[in-house]
Specification:
Radius of gyration: 14 Å
Number of strands: 7
Structural class: alpha+beta
Helix content: 25-40%
Distance between the termini: 45 Å
Strand content: 25-35%
Shape: globular
């Protein structure tokens, strides 16, 4: 039986992969997360929203363990982030004891609103920048 969360995940990720991500990835101001594909070993780029605080970058995944980039982080947590046009290396950490809804209130409003609206399994991620 297909649940509402399953359907929502399928619809949103299809729209992101085919429409949103290709457009957003080309914008010079868009923050990008680069992970290493867990089966291919190839770089995988995902547009994300979040905020840098000191030497850390915080964001919330809308689908948690269902997100491909979260699965990639679990396999290899060494990542790169493009923030304001500059690439940084870092180590990603899944922060399971963080309240992702409270975290979204500290992050940029437009992205946080979208994540809350479409997300079904929110998960906080912190990237410690090198």
């Amino acid at each position: 039986m297909v649940t509402r969360a399953d359907l929502q995940h399928a619809v949103v990720t299809t729209l992101q992969r085919r429409i949103g991500n290709p457009i957003l990835s080309r914008l010079p101001i868009q923050t990008l997360l680069e992970t290493t594909g867990r089966t291919t070993g190839k770089p995988r780029i995902t547009p994300i929203g979040g905020r840098r605080t000191g030497t850390s970058f915080w964001f919330v995944s809308e689908f948690g363990d269902r997100s491909q980039y979260i699965r990639n982080i679990k396999a290899d947590n060494k990542v790169r982030l493009r923030i304001r046009g500059r690439w940084y290396t870092g180590t990603a950490h899944l922060v399971l004891d963080d309240d992702p809804v409270a975290r979204l209130r500290t992050l940029p409003r437009a992205n946080s609103t979208a994540v809350r609206a479409v997300g079904t399994d929110l998960m906080t991620v912190r990237v410690d920048l090198d």
